[in-house]
Amino acid sequence: MNIKQIFLLAACIIPAYTPSSLLAGPGEFTGYVAGEVRIFPESATSSKQGEAQLSFSIQPEYFKDWDDGNQSLTIVPFVRLDSMDPERTHWDIRELTWIKVGENWEVRAGLRKLFWGVAESQHLVDVINQTDLVDSMDGEEKLGQPMVNISFMGEQGTLDMFLLPYFRERTFPGEKGRLRTGYYIDTDQTQYESGAEKEHIDWAVRWFQSLGDWDLGLSHFSGTSRSPTFSKGIDSDGNSVLIPYYALIEQTGMDLQATKGAWLWKLEVISQRSQGDRHQALTGGFEYTFVGVMDSAADLGLITEYLYDDRGESAPTPLESDLMVGVRLALNDEASTDFLIGTIVDVNQQNFAVSLESSRRVGEDWKLSLEGRVFVNLPEEDPIYSMRRDSYMQIELARYF
User: Fold this and answer.
1) Among 46, 94, 171, 257, which is least packed, fewest CB within 10 Å?
2) For the chain, give me the number of helices (H) and strands (E)?
3) What are the pLDDT digits (tens) for 164-186?
4) 289-336 tens-digit pLDDT
5) Under DSSP, is residue 102 helix (H, G, I), strand (E, B) or coil?
6) Domain for residue 205, yes or no?
7) Has residue 21 been placed in a domain?
8) Domain count, the chain
9) Alpha carbons 77 and 3: distance in angstroms, whole number
10) Residue 282 to residue 124: CA distance in whole angstroms
11) Contact 59, 398 (CB under 8 A)
12) Residue 24: its pLDDT value, please?
């Protein structure tokens, strides 16, 4: 089944549940437009890269429900224009989702974004959506994933089943972009383990249950890995490049969170098989919140997490034995001002990265966000060594409507 067949199927299914009154009244339009500035204090490793980056983004959202709220349609397109990197100038359909709600079940079809996981530093169990790496290097931004999702809700928990009939490749910064690999990633030469390539049909299932203070999720995914590995190659101009390779994986995961007073305990564990090998990884830790710091309205949270991958130094991720320590401050003022400062330290290599995220509302419709990252003492064998000069500070001003 290819992407055209998916939309043809959706075009046949949705009208069967859509009364003519759907178009009779207006839906709800919301969204934002934003301007962003990134400053890189250090000169780039490549002469093709600059030291300042401007971009403009817009993400409108349309929502319409009918059938007494039992059916709805959500459309969320996204567009970004970037001054430095042509690859970062892109568009996407984050969501185009039809939902039908029954007494104890739901059906969702279209392109969707969803999130699994509880950890702060990395999201091991979150395997459904592809990462939009050109939009944000922290992996938090995702591309819309074509899917059909059926959910059953009951006293024994919620069971979600997913059919994922089309694969989306990860986006990467281009030759002129910062925060990229040393060699340019040539997506024109992308390779797959599956002969069906993008049209391989993936599937997933997840069970979730809240048990008092505990929230437990168990999941299994079977299909094309959202995280590629790379091999060196040559492009059509004779330049050395990296070629992405997407393997087939079987991944079983668990996410567990316990709320015990001021303590929030978190754990994500996966066991993944790929190309005949199996590995395990985990992220676990806690967050402790001091409520009303110094007799104020502010809350101060202390975060500690350990990140482990049993492949050690051979893991394709830099997070194979690392410690994350962070502080979260919420002022709880009218502007919803908050700060998150964290550092991830490699236990073996002693290199580390520091991150800062902050935001506050300005008036009723504006939001000011600050983001920064500093890379310190990266060794040559580190997977992100090419970013050693890419410490940056970013300011974004968004207007919501």
Assistant:
1) 46
2) 1, 22
3) 999 999 999 998 999 988 888 99
4) 999 999 999 999 999 999 999 998 888 888 889 999 999 999 999 999
5) coil
6) yes
7) no
8) 1
9) 17
10) 7
11) no
12) 54
CATH number, position 371: 2.40.160.10
HSE, side-chain direction, 13 A CA sphere, residue 281: 23
User: Which position has the token pair 């419709």?
Assistant: 365
Q: Are 173 and 179 in contact (CB under 8 A)?
A: yes
Per the structure, the complete domain to which residue 103 belongs is given by 3-16+26-400
β-pair type (240-246, 184-185): parallel
Q: Which residue has the tokens 């591309």?
A: 143
- How many Å apart are CA 267 and CA 298, to the nearest integer? 27
Q: What are phi and psi of 375, to 5 degrees?
A: -105, 130
pLDDT in tens, 70-114: 999 999 999 999 999 999 999 999 999 999 999 999 999 999 999
* Rounded CA separation 298/285 (Å): 23
Residue 20, pLDDT above cutoff 60: no
pLDDT score at 25: 65
CB contact at 8 A, 361 and 394: no
Tokens 């250090």 belong to 42
Taking CA atoms, 300 is separated from 113, 262, 331, in Å, by 30, 11, 9
Burial of 40 (0-12, 13-18, 19+ CB in 10 A): buried
